[in-house]
Amino acid sequence: MSEERVGFFTDTSVCIGCKACEVACKEWNAIPEDGLSLTAMSYDNTQALGASTWRHVAFIEQPRPDGRTQLPLVEGESTAQETPVGGDGELRWLMSSDVCKHCTHAACLDVCPTGSLFRTEFGTVVVQEDICNGCGYCVPACPYGVIEQRPHDGRAFKCTMCYDRLGAGQEPACAKACPTESIQFGPLDELRERAALRVDQLHEAGVTDARLYGHDPDDGVGGDGAFFLLLDEPEVYGLPPDPVVTTRDLPEMWKHAGAAALSLLGGLAACFALTGRGRR
């Protein structure tokens, strides 16, 4: 990588669920419409990330643990986020804009047979549409369930972190459109430092459930290029608690497969040798 690695830090504590990121992503990347009907589960008309949903804003309704109606200010902000609550004041919305994690150890890269998936000079992971052959190997390889194939097309699609905009020195469309700076873009090391300070700020303000997800370079995927500040357990947001690169055991598996193949060949050779002796 010739450039400094960049990424996303999504601070869910200031997400207002406006979906500006979803709209900006679709407009800039010319992504097809993928659902205009509510799911009847929440104020959500897309449900999850997919081939035509590269940014997905989750709406999670749950009992409010502390009766809090506002969260502390983000540094530089003049107004605090007021989380919508039910009439009795005992409910809260957890909102989070999900996206491809651009893993450090990306299993999708490991399994792609055509080189359609590649690591850019910015440290992001991109699918080249014109090279993808629709094999679908990357779909089950992703530990986050991000990648999907489009119906009637077969090719895989996901967030590119606006690779074309990065090459022109611009920030991704979703971060540019976010009105509360819930989606922050920049050098990954700087974002991690900023995120740690934000968690400390929330803890000091009494929001003890605040925690980071995907920021640790020593986790099962080597850390994510897109990580999050969450206000509850990862499972609440539909995220795996301990993601692991799905191809971590491939070397050992190939070693065992090779040993098995050699044993089989050895057995066949012994059989032919015995057959030849019997004919004599």
Detailed description of the structure:
The chain has helices spanning 20-29, 107-111, 138-141, 163-167, 173-177, 188-204, 250-279; strands at residues 6-11, 55-63, 91-99, 117-119, 125-127, 148-149, 156-157, 183-187, 211-213, 226-230. By secondary structure, it is α+β, with helices and mostly antiparallel strands. The longest helix has 30 residues, at 250-279. It is globular, with a radius of gyration of 23 Å. Mean pLDDT is 85; it is low at 82-87.
Query: Tally of extended strands?
Result: 10
Helix and strand string, N-terminal first? EHEEHEEHEEHHEHEEH
Q: Helix- and strand-based class?
A: alpha+beta
Q: What's the rounded overall pLDDT mean? A: 85
Strand numbers in spatial order across the main sheet? 8-1-10-9
For the biggest sheet, the summary is: 4 strands, mixed
Helix percentage? 25-40%
